[in-house]
Amino acid sequence: MSDERIQEFQKELGIDAESVAREVESFIKGSMEELEREGVILGLSGGIDSSVTAALCARAVGSERVLALVMPDKDSVKRHTEDACSLASRLGIQWRVVDLTPYLKQFGVYGLFPLNKVPVTAKMKEKIVQKTYRSYIKRYHKTPFSESLKGFKDKKYASFFKGMNAYYRIKHRMRMLLLYYFGEQENRLVVGAANKTEYKIGYFVKHGCDAAADIMPIMTLYKTQVKTLANYLGIPSSLIVKPPSPDIIPGIIDEEAIGMTYGKLDMILLGLERGWNRTKIAKSADVDEEDVSYVEMLIERSRHMRNVYTLSN
Question: Which of 74, 182, 203, 233 has the fewest CB atoms within 10 Å, i.e. is most exposed?
Fold first, then answer.
């Protein structure tokens, strides 16, 4: 019975990829024309979201009018940079690699990461970060991700969390600055690659490149729907099956950071969107009610990230 319920949810999350692609492409082209821009610019990370966005932009306005910035820093995994450059070449779009490391060094950012103060290899950093993350979850029954959605008043390891937030969030904000810097010089529309799943739970950096843009063409799509669209658009399978990662802290993978697979997460979010209660969602999606409560908590704790507080709030 649970398999049947899951299949029903997956059917609900299904999309007509061809129709969706046409609609998104029309939106991109229309936005560029309405805002009187001569091209588009986006950040290309080597992940599925930015890859799909780049492909849609190329189809919408022509590859010759698309510029992708690949913006690694010294913590980035080399494969992601290579994947991004390879995809840009495949799509026939313009691309530039802009190394963030010199900019981040000027801010003293790398000194905020404790493992940069000891002589360990990149692989060792990844293992230590993963072990620390898992140990925190096991000890406190909370994910560092959920804890970081608000401030750290009266929380365990507050000084560590504050330093780590400053350490990784500036990377996304620096990317946003560079996208607008290059985009405005060439009168380009800044295109973001946020998806519905991550936006709803706060898995993005406030005022970063995954939140601040002129348009967000795939914001209405859940992560699993983005994957469907990627297959339709012919994105290389190696990029589609690659575990999603923000590539800003060594060893951090999306699903482990969030504490849940995207498949489960999307089904829960869909149930909440329908207005179902926890029990019905848990039964229909074959998840625990605690999982539903956790997602509800993420949505609530990240509300401030989607809405600027004003006096009326």
Answer: 74
